[in-house]
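Response to reviewer comment R2.3. The reviewers asked that we include at least one raw input/output pair. We reproduce the pair for Selenocysteine lyase here without editing.
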Amino acid sequence: AKWRAGQCGEPTRQAILSSRKVYMDYNATTPLEPEVIQAVTEAMKEAWGNPSSSYVSGRKAKDIINAARASLAKMIGGKPQDIIFTSGGTESNNLVIHSMVRCFHEQQTLKGNMVDQHSPEEGTRPHFITCTVEHDSIRLPLEHLVENQMAEVTFVPVSKVNGQAEVEDILAAVRPTTCLVTIMLANNETGVIMPVSEISRRIKALNQIRAASGLPRVLVHTDAAQALGKRRVDVEDLGVDFLTIVGHK
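Raw output as returned:
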């Protein structure tokens, strides 16, 4: 008699695969820990009020939000009043980018340079510096601004040796109209750690020279979504002006 897989009590390969699953995409998102599910469930049951309201359910909701804000600030070495909650990392990155566009034009207006924000001339548009391996939540909004002639962007290539964006390449890309350098802390595909602290230190030194010439400061942003929970993330150590973190990695 011929034996076939699945006979005589032997499980088929398909049965094995369907009964045992291994999730390995934690860089995309992670399953919730039981403690997280419990905390969220309790908050939805007991703190459902409007946190701006003065009655009990509203005050309870506000207390939970304030406690979360203080806890996050302590975790990243920041201040509670500097924490801004958004719907996620993509919104946070977009908020930084578009805020810098608005800030740039406000500074131009104060200087008396009246520029149409929707179709400014070349050289009067805000200039951004990023690298070629940034997450789409950085790359796509910057490309959209360029396509609509609302900004200029330099995409600095990464080293073929270590995968990092080189500090000297970033500094060499700075222009008088540069308003923001945005470099991720840890790459979501390669895991490479970018030299964000060194970038911030060098940009701050450059800002002193720019101030003497009447040029605005260049601010630094890092998307630390892939680093949080895997390594120490401290805004003071990083020296950044903006930090993006998420809770689902």
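The two ends are 53 Å apart (CA to CA). Strands lie at 127-131, 152-156, 178-182, 219-223, 242-244. Further pairs are available on request from the corresponding author.
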